[in-house]
Amino acid sequence: MIQENLIVGFIQSLLILLIAFIFVYKYSDIRTKTTHFVCPNCASRFKLSKLKFILAFKTGFLNERIVECPKCGYRGKMPIVDD
Ligand SMILES: [Zn+2]
Q1: Residue ranges per domain, the chain?
Q2: CA 69–ligand 1 middle distance (angstroms)
């Protein structure tokens, strides 16, 4: 009985994790498709891959991330700009 509860609990936590993952994935999919970054150093516009977007450091501001410019290698705070 106790073991069955453990298995059900385990499956439930797995499901919650899976749903959370799908939400994060979908969110980053939409965000990376509709937004871009502008490098303050070389002014080039670039998009991030989904994985990089998810892993990008947040600065505390909603539309700002710490990202690295693929052109010049500048790394710093950049605002997320809508396309
Ligand atoms: Zn740059």
Answers
A1: 2-82
A2: 5
Going from the Cα of 30 to the center of ligand 1, the distance in angstroms, rounded, reads: 24
Residue with tokens 């965000």: 31
- Kindly state the tokens that stand for 7: 């298995």
Cα of 48 vs centre of ligand 1, distance in Å, is 13
**Gap from CA of 13 to ligand 1 centroid (Å):** 42
* Helix/strand/coil percentages in the chain, nearest 5: 45, 25, 30
pLDDT per position in the chain (83 positions), as tens?
678 899 999 999 999 999 999 999 999 999 999 999 999 999 999 999 999 999 999 999 989 999 999 999 999 999 999 99
Q: Tell how far the Cα of 57 is from the centroid of ligand 1, in angstroms.
A: 17
CA separation for the pair 80, 65 (Å, rounded) = 7
Q: Is the pTM of this model over 0.90?
A: no
